[in-house]
Amino acid sequence: MGETLVECVPNFSEGRNKDVIDAITGSITSIEGVSLLDVDMGPDFNRTVVTMVGGPEAVLEAAIKSTGVALELIDMSKHSGEHARMGAIDVVPFIPLSNSSMIECIDLSERYAKAVSENYGIPVYLYAKSARNESRVKLPDIRKGEYEGLKEKLSDPDWAPDYGPSEFLPRSGATATGARQILIAYNVNLSTDDKSLANIIAGKIRTSGVIKRDDQGNKLVDSNGIAIRKPGRF
After folding, report:
1. Which pLDDT tens digit goes with each residue over 180-218?
2. What domain count does the chain have?
3. I need a surface site. Which of 5, 100, 110, 202 has the fewest CB within 10 A?
4. Cβ contacts of 17 within 8 Å, gap of 6 or more
5. pLDDT at residue 230 in the model
6. CB neighbours of 15 closer than 8 A, spacing ≥ 6?
7. Mind telling me the catalytic residues?
């Protein structure tokens, strides 16, 4: 068998201060056995997406260490940006690559959540394949209300975090982590301010697709009352 590899793609709520991102990525590259593949800083989103690959234990260590650095340097109470977000370390997905499984990545996400909630005292939600109930499978459902609505969300027992305190921490916010398959994302610039046009394009392309509707425009639902979706091309 070949080398066991997993991918981790943490999203940090900082896309304008290169010194902060350099400190975060420096903590990742300091871990032996981890390769930093990409650092995508977005000033409009004020968000940076980092891609790292390595052995499971090394990647887990790098994810935990970079979280600690980010919590020291990012203050969510001063954050603004165009991308939906709820925390300084917004989301930390683990993805199986060679000789690794989804079950192993679920375990990594749970160990990450336990470690950062205990070490840094932050609330952490499990999503995607790691979710413990249906309402938390989709990241947008967890992130609904974003940072500004997080205080109210954490006060709702139905939205108690899977790890860490049900407490609003203005500086750090909350974090989501989970295991998922490889995700392909790209940005397209449109010469319009009409967001609905972007939503139409996204609905035709994204895996999640669009909600099916009848001739009167009403949503179609299944026997459980869940909206029926028409998958996008990919």
Report:
1. 999 877 778 888 888 888 888 888 887 777 788 888 778
2. 2
3. 202
4. none
5. 83
6. 21, 41, 42, 43, 44, 45, 46, 47, 48, 81
7. 83
